[in-house]
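The records we work with from here on pair a chain with its fold. Taken together, the tokens spell out the fold as the letters spell out the chain. The record below shows the convention in full.
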Amino acid sequence: MANISFAWMLQCISKYLTIDQKAYEKYLDYYFDWTYKSKYQCTHHSQTWGDTAWSYTPWPINRDKPEEFLLPKKDASHTHSQIERGWGIGPFIDSAADGIFSWAGGVPRHPGEPEIEDETLKPAPLKKYGVPHEYMHPVAAYRQPRRPAKEPKNAPPRALDNFSRPNKKGRYWWVKKGDFTVEVPEWIIMGGENDRDNKYNFERRYYERCLLAKNKDIKIEAKKNGETAKFEVEWLKEVDSQVDFEVIKAHKDAFDYP
């Protein structure tokens, strides 16, 4: 998810600054090479209590060659099947959902709501503070059906349980069920086949590389089980076919509210 935010920020500033696309591609090369090795060829040794205790023993007892102890310790090559290399489908870690932080009684913020008004922990009234100008990133729609595992109680998918996603005015919207005053437009990832003016989009490029990595994982898993690989289709193209790029670009800013 951090990389999705990073790609979004790069795209937002790309019309004001010159960003080296080759450097970005090199960054993606390094990143996906790292995730592949972490998933299938990991040799990283995780520090254990035994390692910590051993490190505090006197030098003559626990090692003959001190310089060797300073080198990174490696384990035999092993795999981490739980690592997700797809687009925004890794586990969501929320430190406020469990443990001591949950005792503070935090309240998850829902899309379309202003910040909380005061210590009552109730959503601030829209009439007083106005509608926050925000967007829902399409990765939220992509992630929801692809994360069947239980999420933390304060994770974003929980906050979206009461929202529908209709298509109108040339784009998708997130509408709170039973309360049509809360409507949040979905962010448009430009640069699709229907958008000839945007040849390169940092967000879209990251999605494409995630799709390649995910399908590579599917192929490896299918081969291991002796099955036929069922590759994932390009979901973003399906979204593109439902978005009216010309209507969106007709606004002062391509991402303005319609």
